[in-house]
Amino acid sequence: MNGDGVCGVCAAEMRILGKWAFVALTYMPTFGQVTIKQLVNGIKYKSEKEIFLESSIERKEPISLFRKWLQDACETPEIIEPNAMCLATATKDAVPSARFVLLKDVTADGFTFFTNYESRKADELAENPSVALAFYWLPLRRSVRIEGKAERISREASEAYFHQRPRASQIGALASPQSKPIPSREFLDEKEKAIKAELGPEGVVPLPNWGGYLVRPQTIEFWQGQTNRLHDRIRFRKELGANEAVDGTLLHQAHKRSIKRIESLNM
C-alpha cells in the first residue's frame, strides 16, 4: 500500500460515466519482489509417475470415473468446495454467461444442480438448453469438462430437496428475488424478517419458483496436468459418427503439446 492508499499490485482510477462508476484497474506484475511470472512458473503439476493412463481406469465409463475423481477431491483438505462447478449458459442469440453453482447429485442420467427459476441462468436455459460445466480441483491438478443439455427435474423432486435444506436457506430462497434489482440490502433483511414472523418457528416454508436442473451429458472430458506439459486428456463422447463403433479402443491424437485421448461409448 503506498502513501496514497493504492495497493502495490494494482492502481485504481474511478471515473463517472453517466450513471456508471467505472473503476479501471492497472495491474502491475509484482508481488513484493516476486514477479507474476515467477509465481506462475512455480506451479507444480503431476510427475511422470502419476500419468493418467487409460489402464488406470477400472471401467471405461465416465460417470464412475467422475465419482472417483470427486471422491478424491472430497478427501483433499485443501479443496473447500469440491462440488463447486462453473455453469456456462447462453441466450438463443449465443450471448454467453457463466457463474459458479454447486453440484448436488450425480446419477447415470447426469448432473443435478438447483437454482431460482427466475434467475438469468433459468431464463437462458428456457431459450437454449445447451450448457457446459467445468470443475477444477487445483491441489489435484485435475479438471473435468461436461457439455450437454439441461432440463428441469420434477416439482416433486425439487420440493423434496428444498425441504431438506437448512431452514435459513429455505427462507433465504423465498426472500430473494434473484437477478432482479432491489433498493438496498436492508430490503432483503426486512423481507426475511417478515417471512420468519409470518411462518413462525414451525411453519412450513413454501416452495418458491425454485428447483433443479438435470444436465444430460453428451461429452465428458477429464484433464490432468503433467510436469512435462504433456497433459493427459481423455474425452468420453456419447454421440457416435457414422464410421464409429463402441469397441473400447481409444483413439490417440496429439494436439499441440498435449496428449488427447478420445473414447467413444454410450453413457
TrEMBL record:
It comes from the Eukaryota. The keyword Oxidoreductase applies. PANTHER family: PYRIDOXINE-5'-PHOSPHATE OXIDASE, PYRIDOXINE-5-PHOSPHATE OXIDASE. GO terms for biological process: pyridoxine biosynthetic process. Catalyzes the oxidation of either pyridoxine 5'-phosphate (PNP) or pyridoxamine 5'-phosphate (PMP) into pyridoxal 5'-phosphate (PLP). Pathway: Cofactor metabolism; pyridoxal 5'-phosphate salvage; pyridoxal 5'-phosphate from pyridoxamine 5'-phosphate: step 1/1; Cofactor metabolism; pyridoxal 5'-phosphate salvage; pyridoxal 5'-phosphate from pyridoxine 5'-phosphate: step 1/1. Belongs to the pyridoxamine 5'-phosphate oxidase family. GO terms for molecular function: FMN binding; pyridoxamine phosphate oxidase activity. Keywords: Flavoprotein, FMN, Oxidoreductase, Pyridoxine biosynthesis. Homodimer. Residues 79-188 form the Pyridoxamine 5'-phosphate oxidase N-terminal domain. It comes from Anopheles culicifacies. InterPro entries: Pyridox_Oxase, Pyridox_Oxase_CS, Pyridox_Oxase_N, Pyridoxamine_oxidase_dimer_C, Split_barrel_FMN-bd. This is pyridoxal 5'-phosphate synthase. Its cofactor is FMN. Residues 210-239 form the Pyridoxine 5'-phosphate oxidase dimerisation C-terminal domain. Its EC number is 1.4.3.5.
